[in-house]
Amino acid sequence: MIHIKPIPERPAKADIDAIAPFSPATLHEAQGRRGALSSRIKPVDYRMKLCGPAFTVKCAPRDNIMLQLAINYANPGDIIVVSAGEYEEAGSFGDVLANACLAKGIGGLVTDTGVRDTLQLRELGFPVFSLSVCIKGTVKETLTAVNDPIIVGGELIHPGDIIVGDADGLVVVRRNEAQDVAKLAQAREDAEAGYIAAYKAGKSVIEVSNLEPVLKAKGFKIDL
Hints:
By secondary structure, the chain is of the alpha/beta class. It has helices at about 15-20, 25-30, 65-75, 95-105, 120-125, 180-200, 205-210, 210-215; strands spanning about 40-45, 50-60, 80-85, 110-115, 130-135, 150, 155, 160-165, 170-175.
């Protein structure tokens, strides 16, 4: 029997708020270069961003019945994350379901299959990250799992993990690591601001990045 389960442990709003200011790239680097989903999964519009707890769902390829159930049971702010076997030749989500998501206040969709109606999705502004764009329709046949751990974009995602996305891609931050990752991300941004200030003050890339000892150790010589 298939059961619709809630997210077992939701991140605190404070944890989501701590992570939200940072880009996926910064978060990926800050947590030891972990958590980046496959670069093949991209937003249908570069202006789209998302950040929220993962509401996970597994779908059979070319079948969106479980996605529709996920939309029905997800909470406002949830990011629906769909594992559908990296099947590119299906348009499992479009403007009609996007309107359903907006009406519920859902925070976004991440899927390793295809979507369609991308012009309308851009106009609606609902954040959609997908593996492909495909016009081919889907069936509603196979019942699977909701809010179990899934693999999407090569990353294991637990329900309640924090998903962050922007024009560059997606990253997952473990719910119980959010506060530590946020502190590391802030430290990274502070350091990068210092690098930029040094460049503007006239320092070279070699000086700012302290590359001279590295280059010497590798036998690199400059003849300019």
